[in-house]
Design goal:
The protein is of the alpha+beta class and about 200 residues long. Helix content is about 35%, strand content about 25%. Helix 1 packs across helix 4.
Length: about 200
C-alpha cells in the first residue's frame, strides 16, 4: 500500500519547514537536518565533533564517579571518537530524501503511522536506506582533518506532525560510513520512543 508519492519539491519544503522547528516526538527537539548535516563549514564540522567528544568524556567521568561511589568497577565501553558526516550538496540531500521517503520500507511505515492502531501525532519513523548511487559526503572522526568519501547508507528520521500539510516533520538526515553494513529497513516508534513495528525493504 502506498502512503504518498513524494516529489523533490515536497521534500525540499519539508526539510526547510522542519529546520529549527520543535518535533512532535518525545521532548520536542528542534529539527536539525540542515544545521548539523548540511550547512556546516569544515571548521564547524570539526568543532561539532570536538564538542561531542567533550560531552561523551563528561558522561564517562560522571559514570566513573558513580561507579566509584558504589564500589563498582567502571567499564568505559567503546572508543571515544565521534563520527560526524555532512552532505556536500543540498541537491543530493533533497534527491536522496525523496528516494528514501518513497522507498518500500518508508511507505510501509508511513501507512502504519497514519492508519491502524499505532496511528498518532508524534510517532517516529527511522528509515535506513541504501542509496542507488554513491553520494559524496564530508566526515570527521576527531582531530582537525575533514575528509570526503562516497556514502551509500543513509538514515532519515521523520515524525508525524499534523500541523503540516503533509503531516510530517524531518528531524534529521545523515549518512553513515562506507564500511557500515548496508541495510534497507525502517522502525516505527510511539511518542515516548518505544519501538512498535519494523519494516524490511529490498536490497
Amino acid at each position: 500500500m502506498l502512503h504518498h508519492a513524494f516529489t523533490e519539491r515536497e521534500v525540499e519544503g519539508l526539510l526547510r519547514a522542519s529546520e529549527g522547528t520543535p518535533s512532535t516526538h518525545r521532548g520536542g527537539a528542534a529539527g536539525h537536518a540542515r544545521s548539523r548535516h548540511d550547512l556546516l563549514s569544515n571548521a564547524e564540522l570539526i568543532e561539532r565533533a570536538d564538542a561531542m567528544i567533550e560531552a561523551e568524556q563528561r558522561r564517562r567521568d560522571q559514570r566513573r564517579a558513580e561507579a566509584a561511589e558504589r564500589g563498582r568497577k567502571y567499564r568505559p565501553g567503546g572508543p571515544m571518537y565521534q563520527l560526524i558526516t555532512a552532505w556536500s550538496a543540498w541537491s543530493d540531500m533533497v534527491t536522496m530524501g525523496c528516494l528514501a521517503l518513497n522507498s518500500p520500507q518508508a511507505q510501509a511505515g508511513l501507512v502504519s503511522m497514519f492508519s491502524g492502531q499505532h496511528a498518532a501525532n508524534g510517532t517516529r519513523l527511522e528509515v535506513c536506506f541504501i542509496a542507488p548511487r554513491d553520494v559524496p559526503m564530508r566526515f570527521v572522526s576527531g582531530g582537525a582533518t575533514v575528509r570526503s568519501l562516497p556514502v551509500r547508507q543513509l538514515t532519515l528520521i521523520v515524525d508525524r506532525a499534523d500541523r503540516d500539510a503533509l503531516r510530517l516533520h524531518i528531524q534529521t538526515f545523515f549518512g553513515g560510513m562506507p564500511n557500515s553494513a548496508p541495510y534497507n529497513g525502517a522502525v516505527l516508534s510511539d511518542q515516548r520512543g518505544q519501538e512498535l513495528l519494523g519494516f524490511v525493504g529490498y536490497g
